[in-house]
Design goal:
Elements (H helix, E strand, L loop, with lengths): L2 H31 L3 H25 L5 H21 L3 H28 L6 H30 L1 H22 L13 H6 L4 H22 L1 H8 L7 H23 L3 H22 L3 H16 L1 H12 L4 H28 L6 H29 L12
Amino acid sequence: MPAGLIALALGGFGIGLTEFVITGLLPEVAADYGVTETTAGWLVTGYALAVIVGALGLTAATTRLPRKPVLIGLLVLFVIGNTLSAVAPVYGVMMLGRVIAALCHGAFFGIGSVVASNMVERSKRASAVALMFTGLTASNVLGVPFGTFLGQALGWRATFWAIAVIGVVALVGVALLVPSVRSDTEQPPSLVRELSAFRSGQVWLSLGMTVLGYGGMFGAFTYIAYTLTSVSGFASSAVPWLLIVFGVGLFVGNFVGGKLASRSIDGTLLVVLVVLTVVLALFAVVATSPVLTVIALVLMGAFGFATVPALQTRVMQYADHAPTLASGANIAAFNLGNALGAWIGGLTIAAGLGYTSPIWAGAGITLAAVVLTVVAAGAARRGRSHGAVTTGSVATV
């Protein structure tokens, strides 16, 4: 295993912690700034929207630059944003810090996915991407619960100070361990060639699958602290431990999803998304039962994150000749899904439908992902039957 993959996973850990820890601290942040839970939820939605801008804008702007210095620069931006969040005196400044930190997110994972895949042979690319995203899952297993606990014990600002420190450690790790040399099989960087990947219909279908497939799970997860305390009856002090349970599901799902995606990307996505739809619907039904809620949390995390390696590898597969910008666009798609799910979940709560309504909305979004996956997989089969190339510039539907 290349040591650089560990460094990338470390960066993913810090960035994942920034993205997800806010969900466990929303009640505390809302109370501190005197805003509603829906307004506080915009700290999630705003972050996700900023990721989209960074994933596309920064990835495109840095296409011709060496990847290692770009990754280091992105982590510097990450540290600045989290430091600003830690000292924010008012809600608007907090949002600004979230936005600054988010700008590095998409470009880091987009560029990092390409770097990770080029460290190994082609048959192991999905597993290499999954290993990089292990940092993201580890942030949920360990970081988010303990970050929530830290925020509840010492104030939510302490959590963001801790994240800034983690960012510095990750920066050093990337500087020391990620190789600077490009793969021998890579062509010289070109923004025009990177943009040409978007002529592939399968690339666009893959992006749509990511928006819906990930958005459903994250929409259910955004307001999970309210669901656990107001519906399931858990004390707020139990939330960090319940997030550990959810994080264990993420970790298992990411690992198994990476292994399965190495065999069949579309087959893995179809099965996992169907099961995730059922899990979310059942979660909404049994949320009043503490025991069944714990089981549902594990399953939601496992099947929700089992999609990630397949979704990321799929878009890179159909943009194989120019994967960097397409990879960044897929990270943007993940976060567009986050924003969509969080926004719809917030609307359902504001409409007075209760704290299980975001879970129902998530099930509906995931069901739409199932339909799109069937369409994309069918189009890919028809393309292969007509002799179309599935991993190059002429991959179309």
